[in-house]
Specification:
Oligomer: single chain
Structural class: mainly beta
Shape: globular
Number of helices: 7
Radius of gyration: 26 Å
Helix content: under 10%
């Protein structure tokens, strides 16, 4: 290892470039700022914090000027139609009394105002304007922050940590939401137990960005509640020892984007799963099928599927799913989607005969097959080992970019434009016409090069160089850039990855922070644009990565001390960095094998 790191306990990605405004010491000082007519009130004690929020006007900011160690729950009340911001300003709010208390309860002051709660919300924004972030941390054996009915909490650029050393209560979480919660960029939630619980009748959670890393679940619900709305638009959700999202209640879970990783990816035991056609969500199951070892009567079942739909006779009824987009990976089991019934008394699974009526797959890509009955009208096929449910336009694109094989599984009558050198196999009951040739069930055809071109796929090397001054690795397909940085003192480390051609790959963006001198790489165009809006320099598309789920993974780890990210195909290198305190952020993208 070329470098040593001094690491912080908190985790946050430095998104902005603005310097924080540090106030003078004091318990309750008003400081005029130039934005709007709002006021900044500075506090350094728990009582002053509660008092300041209680008496705040809508738009006011309450800013810490010192860390607060609590001896009891912080009970915060906000009047309806007021929006107040709590800015940690680089300081901490902590609770560690070994008395099983919540760290914070946020409620609406005028609880008698029950009419039109959706338009009379009390709102609290939790943020941290400092470059060196503080944290909100609870070490109690109880959920940390309660968001009561009638309250909306928004988080951005903040670290919230739940660190109960006992790890003995899977029901505990960082946030327990009975009202509404919105998670924005820069939010880092880490937990030794659960992440966010959407627990109230009609509760709402919207995850636009941010990172949740938990032990048992990143997002969950309660089977006795109903009417919940959980929307994942972006961000990263990781459950190290459970389901990324566990959904036992009669509510709606909508997956528009983001990355969700767990032993099981998304587990629906009630409610509706909706994955729209334009969804970019990636759901990854890392576990094995461990259903035989299930002990508890409730809670998630470790079945190792990207999506599992389970009829458990829960109060909200059997789950339903409509999947029209997204990417789904089961790393250690044989199906991307699995539906079954579960007997809690016997702890055993059985066939769920109604699953085909409750499940529709009309789009998306999958690294493993699943029950073909779920695909009603879409074309179902495997291209180069990846499974797709596709409409006509998607089908045409998939066929045109096939490199080795196409296996036709359902609802395909003809294929045209199949490239040369590709083998096509028909597994349907009907005859299929391929490039003008008819093939029957279980027949295959090898398309000659003269029929489709058979062009060789061109891969370009991605070089890696190391800067010994700031510990950054630079990745580039530009050989001139690579040689230039090597000439000015960087260590040339050779080829790290292989880049795809634009027509076959997915764009990976590169941005540069002129303050820190660090580069950041992301597949998420929204994340790239957010960073650019905060002062990072847009360096456009760095290269094109592989879109195939079976391609080699490139891991990303994060150094919370200096904001540096590192990317590597070497799992051992990744594990060593994690052992030094770097945060494991899972698979950043995938790459073709390195050409020696």
């Amino acid at each position: 290892m070329k470098k040593t790191f001094n690491l912080l306990l908190s985790a946050s990605m430095v998104l902005g470039l603005a310097s924080p405004i540090y106030a003078q010491e004091g318990t309750f000082v008003e400081v005029a700022e130039t934005r709007a007519a709002a006021t900044v009130k500075e506090v350094s004690t728990a009582d002053a914090l509660v008092n300041a929020i209680t008496n705040a006007n809508s738009g006011d900011t309450i800013k810490l000027t010192g860390s607060i160690t609590l001896s009891d729950t912080l009970n915060i009340q906000i009047t309806a139609n007021k929006k107040v911001t709590l800015d940690l300003n680089g300081y901490n709010i902590t609770l560690n009394t070994n008395s099983n208390k919540a760290l914070m309860k946020i409620s609406k002051a005028d609880k008698s105002s029950t009419t039109s709660e959706a338009t009379n919300l009390a709102e609290l924004v939790l943020t941290d304007s400092a470059t060196k972030k503080g944290k909100i941390e609870s070490s109690e054996n109880a959920s940390a922050i309660y968001v009561e009915k009638g309250v909306r909490v928004t988080t951005n650029n903040i670290n919230v940590i739940f660190s109960d050393p006992s790890k003995d209560n899977k029901a505990n979480g960082v946030f327990l939401v009975k009202g509404e919660m919105i998670v924005e960029a820069g939010t880092n939630i880490t937990s030794t137990e659960g992440g966010i619980g959407v627990m109230g009748q009609g509760a709402k959670l919207t995850l636009n960005d941010g990172i949740i890393v938990s032990e048992y679940y990143a997002v969950t619900g309660n089977g006795t509640q109903s009417g919940t709305e959980t929307t994942i638009n972006g961000g990263t959700l990781i459950a190290n020892n459970g389901a990324g999202i566990y959904h036992p209640q009669n509510g709606t879970l909508t997956l528009n984007g983001g990355t969700i990783t767990g032993l099981s990816g998304v587990q629906m035991c009630s409610g509706n799963l909706v994955v729209p056609e334009n969804s970019t969500v990636k759901v990854i199951a890392t576990g094995e099928d461990d259903r035989a070892n299930k002990e508890e009567n409730d809670g998630n079942i470790d079945d190792g599927r990207a999506v599992s739909l389970i009829d458990r006779n829960y109060p909200g009824g059997a789950p339903k799913a409509n999947i029209a987009g997204g990417s789904f990976v089961s790393e250690k089991t044989d199906e991307s989607i699995l539906a079954y019934s579960w007997n809690s008394d016997k702890k055993e699974a059985s066939e769920w005969t109604g699953a085909k009526d409750n499940t529709t797959v009309s789009g998306g890509e999958f690294n493993k097959p699943f029950n073909e009955e779920f695909v009603k009208t879409a074309s179902f096929l495997s291209v180069d080992g990846t499974y797709y449910a596709a409409n006509e336009a998607t089908l045409k694109n998939l066929v045109a970019n096939a490199e080795e094989s196409i296996v036709i599984l359902k609802n395909v009558k003809q294929l045209t434009g199949v490239p040369g050198g590709v083998k096509v196999e028909n597994k349907t009951e009907n005859k299929v016409t391929v490039n003008g040739t008819e093939i029957s069930k279980d027949q295959s055809i090898n398309i000659p090069t003269s029929n489709g071109g058979g062009a060789t796929v061109k891969l370009n090397p991605v070089y890696r160089a190391y800067n010994p001054n700031n510990g950054e690795h630079l990745y580039t397909v530009d050989e001139k850039e690579y040689k230039h940085v090597a000439s000015v003192g960087w260590d040339a480390e050779g080829v790290a990855f292989m880049a795809e051609e634009e027509k076959n790959g997915q764009a990976l963006y590169r941005v540069y922070n002129p303050n820190s001198g660090l580069h950041h790489y992301t597949l998420n165009e929204t994340e790239k644009n957010t960073l650019v809006s905060l002062g990072w320099r847009d360096e456009k598309v760095a290269w094109y990565t592989s879109k195939k789920p079976q391609s080699a993974p490139v891991f990303r780890v994060y150094n919370p001390n200096d904001g540096n990210h590192h990317y590597t195909m070497n799992k051992q290198e990744k594990d060593v960095l994690v052992s030094y305190g770097w945060q494991d952020e899972g698979i950043a993208f995938r790459t073709a094998p390195i050409e020696k």
